[in-house]
């Protein structure tokens, strides 16, 4: 099942280390099957507040996403970003092939008290 690394990064002033991080990050994906799905795109806020930038990286599995995050190659360059850009980063599994949201709704309804 696919998995995703999702980052919500705050605005930051341009810096050489940020440029170096961006230049080097793609090479860290290769052993784990990762690839950018969203990077550098302007997002459109429909509800709430979402300042900054969104990055989404796809992986073939959560295990591969975790392995990439913990890899020596990524950990070596991570400070180039984190010293200059604050943000939140999560790893999240995707849904299985054929996922049906009505199954989730049914499970929620089963926990509700009778009317």
Automatic annotation (TrEMBL):
SUPFAM superfamilies given in the database record: Dimeric alpha+beta barrel
Domain DUF1330: 2-95
InterPro entries assigned: Dimeric_a/b-barrel, DUF1330
Pfam families linked: DUF1330
Name this polypeptide is given: Uncharacterized protein (DUF1330 family)
Natural source organism: Streptomyces achromogenes
Lineage, uppermost ranks: Bacteria, Bacillati, Actinomycetota, Actinomycetes, Kitasatosporales
């Amino acid at each position: 099942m696919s998995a995703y690394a999702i980052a919500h990064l705050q605005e930051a002033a341009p810096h050489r280390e940020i440029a170096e991080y961006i230049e080097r990050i793609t090479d860290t994906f290769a052993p784990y099957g990762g690839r950018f799905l969203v990077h550098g795109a302007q997002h459109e806020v429909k509800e709430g507040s979402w300042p900054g930038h969104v990055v989404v990286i796809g992986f073939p599995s959560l295990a591969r996403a975790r392995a990439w995050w913990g890899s020596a190659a990524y950990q070596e360059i991570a400070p180039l970003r984190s010293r200059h850009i604050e943000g939140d980063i999560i790893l999240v599994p995707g849904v299985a092939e054929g996922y049906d949201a009505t199954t989730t709704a049914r499970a929620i309804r089963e926990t509700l008290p009778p009317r």
